[in-house]
Amino acid sequence: MTKKRTVKRKVKEPEPTKEQPSVSEQSDNEEDEDLLQAVKDPGEDTTDDEGIDQEYQSDSSEDLEFESDEEGNYLGRKVSNEAEEGEDDQDEDDDEDEDEGEDEDDDSDDDSEESDADDASPTPKDDQSSSSKAAAAQTKEPIIQIIPRDPSKPEYEESDTSDEEDIRNTVGNIPMHWYDEYKHIGYDWDAKKIIKPPKGDQIDDFLRKIEDPNFWRTVKDPMTGQEVLLTDEDIALIKRVNSSRIPNPEHDEYAPWIEWFTSEVEKMPIKNVPDHKRSFLPSVSEKKKVSRMVHALKMGWMKTTEEVEREKQQKRGPKFYMLWETDTGREHMRRIHDPVSAPKRDLPGHAESYNPPPEYLFDEKETKEWLKLKDEPHKRKLHFMPQKYKSLRAVPAYSRYLRERFLRCLDLYLCPRAKRVKLNIDAEYLIPKLPSPRDLQPFPTVESLVYRGHTDLVRSVSVEPKGEYLVSGSDDKTVKIWEIATGRCIRTIETNDVVRCVAWCPNAKLSIIAVATGSRLLLINPKVGDKLLIKKTDDLLAESPNLDVIESERIKTAVQWSNAEPDEQEKGVRVVITHFKPIRQVTWHGRGDYLATVMPEGANRSALIHQLSKRRSQIPFSKSKGLIQCVLFHPVKPCFFVATQHNIRIYDLVKQELIKKLLTNSKWISGMSIHPKGDNLLVSTYDKKMLWFDLDLSTKPYQTMRLHRNAVRSVAFHLRYPLFASGSDDQAVIVSHGMVYNDLLQNPLIVPLKKLQTHEKRDEFGVLDVTWHPVQPWVFSTGADCTIRLYT
Amino acid sequence: MEVENGEGQVQVHLKTKQEQYAVPDVPYAIEGSVSTTELNIFLNALLQSKGAESVDFDFLVFDEYLRGRLCDHLREKAISFEDSIEIEYVERFPAPEPQDCLLHDDWVSAVKASGKWILTGCYDNTLNIWTYKGKHKLTIPGHTAPIKAVDWISLDNENGRFVSTSQDQTAMMWQWNIASNAVECVSVCKGHERGVDSVCVSPDAQRFATGSWDTMLKIWSAELEDAGESTAKRAKESGVRTPRMTLQGHRESISAVQWMDNNTLLTGSWDHTLKVWDLNLEGIKTEISTNKSIFDASYSKLNNLIVTASADKNLRLYDARTNQGSVVRSTYLGHNAWVQTVMWSITEEFLFVSGAYDNQNKLWDCRSPKAPLYDLLGHGEKVLDIDWSNPKYIVSGGADNTVRVFKSSKATVENMETK
């Protein structure tokens, strides 16, 4: 509706020529005008102007009502507004408007020749109707345009006159060359063709140029094809525009500046309104936004510019990295990841109490001991003397405070920086899983028999190979032969000296006992067992093979073979081998032809090997490698084991060379025993240890057993059962399972089985010798208590 | 709770195989806590009503001697208190009484009784013959080494024949004229290569077997005239006899030999086996492996069981009828040391005696594995041999140079009568 109304109004304005339209009549012509409008101004956008008008109108609603009542025309309100203003001095206003309008016309429309002459009011109408430009101007001055319309009569009259002259083209704002081919140039208001004015040729032009003094100021209006004569004002304007000056000649460029808004900063606030509360509160939405961004950063959906930059950098260039960590860097990381905590102090105990229980207080002895260690305070069990006070109040100042602080500081300063990894291993787990002794039967478990009869400590015992008899040698200078099954002493053979060692010949075909007594080695026929064998042995020993072997002086001075004296013959002694030093040990070779003796004092002639059949002796070693303790023949190979105090040397008797040297790492070897298969050697030492050597494995002990509480005197392997026994000064005989497997990959299994402790202690000595029964799982032990005991 | 306190009542049936002591088969309710003493009093009270004399009884519950309280016994055997329990009672075997002590010059390693004579072998290489009254009849030197075993071959009123074995590797057969008290060495049996540890004469007195340290078992003729051999002549002249049969099989010393019948021999050895030999086949019939050295073994014809002595203080009971294996029927633990000798009673089915190195003889009932019936004290040293061939006397020799004679009082009456 607003549109229509504006259209109406606009349409009305040019109409006055035809009729004097009253306000009431407007509605009648509405449709026609509409159509006309549509044709005339298809692109006109007057809505803006009118919109503003409307708003303006709605603001002053009272006026509107008043106007509408008065005139019955909605449009009247603006008019009324202006009317109120301008009723008094309407004419003056008009004049002013005209002036201004003229100016504008000059600016906007070059072609309005007649507008100069025309009233100010129709000019704007023309402008509006013919062209849509200068919308801004219109919006600025709607009032001005309208004012002349309302006091309608004089205006219409003026317009009538001007209308006649004015042949307006209605083609609109189109390129006029479209009409170049036609005779007409457009259509006038009445839809009549506007015929092009006759176009003179060049001669005409020339003539006119000559004739017309105003030719230079004559321009052609492209819209109408009419010639327009520019006024002086126009020319002045053009000139001003050409010279880039402000077109309005009245504009004073140099007028004094009026400072409507001061440029100086005021010290005092202009307004005294306090800041709104909102301005102090952080914005919730901002906060939300920030938190969303933070979350995105965290999740990695978003990256900071720094990161983006870095990524770009990485993408761009080659990558470099440290091949080796520096030491300092590692230390740095360790401090972060694996800090060493300060060492903890022990919690105070009862002794630290100011009022300790009486048992914590030192008695005299303890006090003395504590004071005695004055020079070596670190040896004291407590670094202070527990003291009792009646009450906490009575406790004096702590005199050691500074010192303890200092020590604590030292602790912290000197605490080990390396962290010791604590292994949380159950001790049970480390103990090898051994079979139960119950599964390893048979082995001796109880003392069965005691062989009594000796009057001094029994040094040595040996069993007959068949296992019926037993021989023992004692410090009471006797050798006794016992029946094992009953404990009956069958024979006692007196010798002249302490019997250090006895050894029954392992060859069952011979009935000989070798007895080391003093510096003499007696070969005794025990006269037990097979009579035939006894006789054969006697025959064998009776005659000395007269081999003219030239013995070296060295051997001659060391050993002398001789037949026994008649009185000794009666006792059973057959051959006497006199040595130059006391004999400590005698041992047989497995076949019973060779036997070896040890004289610890014999220097480089300590070990001797005697051959029975040839009655010959040899000194295998020319140099002394140490104090020889004992010797041993290998059960199978021609090897000879020599134990000095610390080490064991194994010699090949055929090649006469050292095969191996076993390192015992002990202070004093007391005895040896070799496994019947010959691959394992058991060594007893006076420093409470037993060493198991696997000869194939290493020169160091395969296992070190600390089973005894005192010096181990003797060890022995059983010939048939996987058993070995050891006798010690702690009066115990310990029986162990020592399984050697045929599979070379399997290590020997050693299981201590039974501790048999029935010997009595005498002069710090307990068990002196242990021997196994050759057949039964029985072990014999001799002790300082003058007895031999059998454990079954 | 009742069970715990032993206060519960138990219903019992009293039974016996001895007719003269039979009581009516009526269930009795008795306290669970009763022991042998109370049961004895109770039973005697029952019997006294019949006018019998007071007798001591032993009570067997489920074939085992009652030794403590009845409830304990039942609990151990896991027998319900609810059931009625059958208690068998037997006249208690009377305690053997030490009767005599026969002093020797040396250890007595072998004893054998027959009739009223006791034959002993001594470590001083002599044999001795004693009467039960303790009268020394004869000392027989002859062996050159300690005697290890003796056995009677035959004994009648005029003559006695016996065999002895020694560590001198021989067995000697002797003939003893009782009237003249003269003894003659019939023959010397040579063949063993080491000491002969055991000897036993066959039930028909035709042969005897010896076991030795040379692991051989040899069978010899026990006849006066060893006929039918090529060497008979020479043997007769020299008095030397050679074995009829040599059986090899043991790996160690044979410590025990006993005839099971005329053709079957039982041997026990240090090599942990018992072997039953069939002499017809001249081979091993059965072998029982044990895990201990056997020092003595005894076979009872009455119950076909073998009891063995070994070094681990235990006596073990084996069944001779088992073909293979070593199932120990029961173990009798009572000795404190090496058990050297064991022998079944030849009349009582369940009784045997043992001698050990703890200086004790023990009388066992094989139904009472926990404790012996009686300890026969007296020896001051190791017991080396024990004999119960004469049911009236238990004879043992020991390392205290004595032979102890224990008289079983059951036999006393009869013995007195015979005298």
Automatic annotation (TrEMBL), chain A:
The identity of this protein, by name, is Ribosome biogenesis protein BOP1 homolog
Membrane-spanning intervals of the chain: none
Q: Which residues form the BOP1 N-terminal domain?
A: 179-444
| Role played | Required for maturation of ribosomal RNAs and formation of the large ribosomal subunit.
In which organism is this protein found? Drosophila arizonae (Fruit fly)
Q: What family is this?
A: Belongs to the WD repeat BOP1/ERB1 family.
Any matching Pfam family: WD40
Q: Where is the composition biased (Basic residues)?
A: 1-11
WD repeat start and end residues = 451-492
Extent of Low complexity compositional bias: 129-138
| Residue ranges, annotated region (Disordered) | 1-167
Q: Which UniProt keywords apply?
A: Nucleus, Repeat, Ribosome biogenesis, rRNA processing, WD repeat
Subcellular location(s) of the protein: Nucleus, Nucleolus; Nucleus, Nucleoplasm
**What InterPro entries does the record tag this protein with?**
BOP1/Erb1 (IPR028598), BOP1_N_dom (IPR012953), WD40/YVTN_repeat-like_dom_sf (IPR015943), WD40_repeat_CS (IPR019775), WD40_repeat_dom_sf (IPR036322), WD40_rpt (IPR001680)
Q: Quote the Gene3D superfamilies the UniProt record gives.
A: YVTN repeat-like/Quinoprotein amine dehydrogenase
Q: Does the keyword Nucleus apply?
A: yes
Automatic annotation (TrEMBL), chain B:
- Subcellular localization(s) per the UniProt record: Nucleus, Nucleolus; Nucleus, Nucleoplasm
- Cite the entry's keywords alphabetically: Nucleus, Repeat, Ribosome biogenesis, rRNA processing, WD repeat
Q: Where is the NLE domain?
A: 10-74
Q: Where are the WD repeats?
A: 189-221, 247-280, 332-365, 376-416
List the Pfam families hit by this protein, alphabetically.
NLE, WD40
Q: Which SUPFAM superfamilies does the entry mention? A: WD40 repeat-like (SSF50978)
Q: Which Gene3D superfamilies match?
A: YVTN repeat-like/Quinoprotein amine dehydrogenase
- State the protein's purpose: Required for maturation of ribosomal RNAs and formation of the large ribosomal subunit.
Q: Identify its protein family.
A: Belongs to the WD repeat WDR12/YTM1 family.
List the protein's name: Ribosome biogenesis protein WDR12 homolog
Which organism does this sequence originate in?
A: Drosophila arizonae (Fruit fly)
Tell me the lineage of the source organism. Eukaryota, Metazoa, Ecdysozoa, Arthropoda, Hexapoda
